[in-house]
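Morning, I've got a small favour to ask if you have a moment. It would help a lot if you went through both lines with me. Thanks so much in advance, here it is.

***
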Amino acid sequence: IPMLYFFFFPPRVPTVPVKNLNDSSPVHPALAGITGILMSAAGLPVCLTRPPKLVLHPPPVGKSDIRPIPGIGHCCRKTTKKQARKGRTPEEVVKRYLQKVRNSPEEDCTICMEALGGPSAYKGPGVASVSRAASVGRLAQCGHLYHLQCLVAMYNNGNKDGSLQCPTCKTIYGVKTGNQSPGKMEYHVIPHSLPGHPDCKTIRIIYNIPPGIQGPEHPNPGTPFTARGFPRHCYLPDNEKGRKVLRMLLVAWDRRLIFSVGTSSTTGESDTVIWNEIHHKTEFGSNLTAHGYPDYGYIDNVLKELKAQGITEDEEQQL
């Protein structure tokens, strides 16, 4: 048959339906169409899946459907200003958590990577007045050793809130606070169930942080910062464990640990509000981006993340 025949009268390819069978891997529509044509032309059966749908929000919820969370009388938290700093010098704060070391072991300080038996390699600002009498100290709880100057320098480069975190094992000394900007946190129960939690309703958390000017605790004081994607809606199952996570998140909010100001890992934008190492579920009815349900390990994982920020179950019970 002449080639011109195929040019003017191409063979008819039967329509191939794309079926949504289950939660199998998504297939891009263009790829589905090409694959269907090729398989049909070869006389093979076609059974492709439609891309799963992203479900960020629950069905519409009226004000009359919203209920307070059992055991928590309030439904809103605000932060308006930075927590007051402790009235001690950096050296005094660091020494509160140290034990004296008479003979330095033959190992390196993991901050400056120089021998503990010698001087600190740190020569930057903020340590000129640090006492030389006790050049090496052991953190009282975890036992890790550092140059005193290195710990003071690390403290000066942090939030300077009166707390100290071991750079080796992340043990927290004192009460850790962050640099979260002023905003509002709302929380309530809505009458819908999350995938994987059909036996309970849902806790909805709404975070709202406006743009503003960076303070002295932020990366670029005096510079504007942006706040993209607010209000942000997050979800927890309304069961015993979900309410425990919420109470610990309230402690984290009060300590300004949920958000920070920095560079977005998704957009690359600098000087913007970002999440701060406590993962939240922002998809209500899907889990296409790993930020939704079902995820049966999420509750235990976020409890570990909260503990790593110094928030214990004993503290959430005091709310």
User: Anything to note?
Assistant: The mean pLDDT is 85. The chain is about 20% helix and 15% strand. The first strand starts at residue 76 and ends at 79.
